[in-house]
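Exercise: predict the fold of this chain.
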Amino acid sequence: MRVIVTRPVAQAGQWVDDLRCQGFDAVALPLMAVAAADPAPVQAAWQRLPQQALVVFVSPSAVAQFFALGPPALAWPHGVQAAAPGPGTAQALRRCGVPADCVIEPAADAAQFDSESLFEQLKQQQWAGRHVLFVRGDGGREWLADTLRAAGARITTVAAYRRVPPRWSAAENALALDAAAAPVRHCWLFSSAQAIGHLMAALPEATWHAARAVASHHRIAERARGAGFGRVDVCRPALPAVVACLQSLPS
């Protein structure tokens, strides 16, 4: 069984390497590309960073694009917390120099890595009158921002990147066609509902009733089932969980 990693290029490589180390035939086929957003709002957000009580980064891409536009050699402001919905985003923050004791993320044993699990950590604090910045792509789910706003927080958002369909190489296009033609020999790893939409747009004639997928969240799994995938399993986006899920699939 070939495992298809559909994350953006900057994230897919590590997943492919880790899965290969676990004995899987893993390949990258990005279904989402990250494009630069207008830099001016991001740079302005950097100037206001010391006034924030919390900065919420929605994904590793949000971290990468936000820090790429930051002032050179500027240290993370003292006392400003940084929140991540999952371990990949939290690791990206620490790699960018955010002190580990400033990073808030869901519990390691959380049932899901998402906004709801992150709020289980954030709700222990009082948010009335405090400034919270959300760093994200163009659009996205509003649940956490709405929840913190209801708790009295002053919410602002900045788009650090744009999500766009990928431009496949000839080899990547051939890989996609092969997976569509031989679905039982492949398993798709989905970490984005929008990415599934990009796959449907790229291969509009394909049928997926015999195809298998592993989704990182129930909402993503619902999108895959709606696209016609015959078997969709859900597991947390952590390597041990993904490995265990893949090993449980029939060969």
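Check your answer against the key: The first strand starts at residue 2 and ends at 5.
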